[in-house]
Amino acid sequence: MASPSPCFLLVLIVTLMAAAEAVEAETTASSPAGKKTYIVRVDHRAKPSVFPTHAHWYGSASFSGGGADPLPLLHVYDTVFHGFSASLTQARAAALATHANVLAVLEDRVRRPDTTRSPQFLGLRNQVGLWSDSDYGSDVIVGVLDTGVWPERRSFSDRNLGPVPSRWRGTCETGPGFPASLCNRKLIGARFFSKGHDAAFAAGGGGINETVESRSPRDADGHGTHTASTAAGRHVFQASMSGYAEGIAKGVAPKARVATYKVCWKGSGCLDSDILAGFDGAVADGVDVISVSIGGGDGMASPYYLDPIAIGSYGAVSQGVFVASSAGNDGPTSMSVTNLSPWLTTVGAGTIDRNFPADVVLGDGRRLSGVSLYSGKPLAGSMYSLVYPGRSSGLSASLCVENSLDPKLVAGKIVICDRGSSPRVAKGLVVKDAGGVGMILANGASNGEGLVGDAHVLPACAVGSAEGETIKAYATSAASPTVTIQFKGTILGVRPAPVVASFSGRGPNGLTPAVLKPDLIAPGVNILAAWTGASGPTGLESDGRRTEFNILSGTSMACPHVSGAAALLKSAHPDWSPAAIRSAMMTTASLDDNLRRSVTDESTGRPATPFDFGAGHLNLDRAMDPGLVYDLSDQDYVAFLCAVGYDAKTVQVITHAPAACPARKPAMEDLNYPSISVAFNGAAAAANQSKRVRRTATNVGAGAGAVYQARVEMAAGQGLSIAVKPRKLVFTAGARRQSFAVTVTAAAEAAIGGVGARYAYLVWSDGEHEVRSAIVVSWMQPL
To answer: Which residues form the signal peptide (predicted)?
Structure first.
């Protein structure tokens, strides 16, 4: 099997070590008796006619090797993927890998799941624009792969919706506490997948805890309900989370239909084999859009042929289904973006113009800004003693991990806790159990000034790194330090916004830098959406509060905004391909904030780059009419995979059908992507280097005839020369597609003072439309 060119396999050792530490032993799913769960990719065309179905073939003695026991099949895949999953010994998995009709054997892994105002912030308006023109996404079906759904929420009401689309082939699976009657004309389907999970955790516990959740599509975690309602929740009046973010809650596509696929289980994550089954089921059921707010598993970028999310999403996209995925929450570290496949739309997170401020008032009168969603009894201005346990009790106490605080030290006081090691809200519970009256949660240097609100179990707020250092210095230097926290509710009209969230996964793309990732950002900070009735807003077992809505942050929250946007665009343009929909969003994305300045990076305060936000911030006010799109077909993706260096068998693992790579190896940069990423040889940076990149634009504007002129926008002193040929594209009714080439020349290192990444933009304009593509130039060191 050929390997990708080492020039393009980037390894950032620090990033990978940190990711490996974060997931520890959870990346491999182990079964009893030395078995593990495996996903087996089969050449389905080889099935002997004597077997009525592929399942019969896979379970037969002839497939399993004569006298060997029949394979213990878990899932059988036959839509986005052909093959099965099974619990096997390592020896039997190795033997299967040599089977004449087996293309690949993949070890199963555990992954983790990565509003009242955000639709308006995206440019959506009632009775005008994309909402009106798409009829609010009516009859488009959004499939959500997540932790399930709490169907009784008003966000899933089917009031005034028409019949279920006739093309729908799905079902409403039942289970304890989940009768089929819970599905309706809004929530048209609900399924759950646990066979891989059950096999993986059959020994030693750690699997499904049936005392807190049922074997049904019901959501005991809340994540899936939140993402589904963000994408397509109905209008809900008088919505809030305990008084915060009051208003009318609605999803991005409020009349779209929802189908949920429970592939993640509370506390134990999501098995690749179940995720793949979810993809298979969703496409077979007839969804138009799939939303996958699930992270990359072990934090390392697997080759596309070893990544079931990449494989499953390719099968979906090849059948016309748009797939959005989260970019991961390991920013602002470089190369932390996940879900890198070029057929996926990878979404990072930005802020919106709403915040939940809380002030920390020190005994010396200084006032420092933080954020909080605490809704209990306030401190009412009373001053309390302030203590920082990390000063005297060590690292575990500074992090406020379980059983680390001495009640004699913290009782009756407000405690400073550092972020890290344990969930933010869990630290507050530790403080409360030790007798503390409040908590100040301080960011570390790696978190910077990025803040998210939490529904704390005691009076508490989060502060940035600089404010945290100020408070710690006061607590350790003042003779009798005192403090109070003042909660200020909901503030609208915050400026600047959007800002790239510090946690949002960043580029470059660690597998194939010729594809810029993330693709774009969308609202992902402090997002209000529906919540489960099985858990409090903190998700802690001891949190007995119950709320209809909750406010969460993460790229998991950004992803369904793009899924909902895709539903609107699909409704308005049913003939558009997934690539065309993504292109429309990317080439119309915003680069400026609401101060009309360049979008900034929360972690640095400096202007963000395409490695931070991709094409920019989603702007649905313009995406419905982008003018031109960069479209892609299956053959384009096959050419890209050949360019990566995969041989025909490896390509087939991803694409179903056999693929023949051309005799002349294609260039990865020529994939017809809406952005342009050029990677030069870092070892040759002492000399000028040049690359030519080809693109084809399709006119989707209202007028068949249009003339577009090219311009390049670039800051001075970049050391780049960018030439576009031709500089004018003329479209007619008979020529709606036109090709062009972009030649990027970079000066020698000495001429530009180093070889850090450089950025520019190519804009095609007809006087009405501005079709913008980010251009990223970087220098990569060969391994």
So the answer is: 1-22
How far, in Å, CA of 321 to CA of 665, rounded?
Answer: 29
Q: Is 402 helix (H, G, I), strand (E, B) or coil?
A: coil
Active site residue 556: yes
Asked whether residue 555 carries a pLDDT value surpassing 80, the answer given is yes
For tokens 């960018």, the residue is 722
**How far is C-alpha 209 from the geometric centre of its chain's CA atoms?**
26
Q: Strands 414-418, 264-265: parallel, antiparallel or unpaired by DSSP?
A: unpaired
d(CA 304, CA 654): 7
Supply the pTM of this predicted model: 0.92
Cα separation, 490 vs 133, whole angstroms: 32
Give yes or no for a contact between 259 and 231, defined as CB atoms under 8 angstroms apart.
Answer: no
Q: Distance between CA 593 and CA 62 in Å, rounded?
A: 63
**Inter-residue contact 480 to 398 (CB < 8 Å):** no
298 is catalytic: no
Could you give the domains of the chain?
30-107 (3.30.70.80), 118-349+505-623 (3.40.50.200), 357-489 (3.50.30.30), 675-780 (2.60.40.2310)
pLDDT tens readout for residues 302-343: 899 999 999 999 999 999 999 999 999 999 999 999 999 999
- Count the neighbouring beta carbons within 10 Å of the beta carbon of residue 10: 21
> Pick the catalytic residue: 85, 268, 556, 773?
556
* Whether 280 is catalytic: no
How big is the chain, counted in residues?
783
Bridge partner list, 771: 764
Set 54, 223, 226, 573: catalytic member: 223
From 43, 108, 114, 146, the catalytic residue: 146
Alpha-carbon span 125 to 611, nearest angstrom: 30
The position carrying tokens 């099965």 is: 84
CA angle 12, 39, 66 (to 5 degrees): 140
**Tokens for 150?**
């709490």
DSSP string, 154-180: GGG--TT--PPPTT----B--BTTB-G
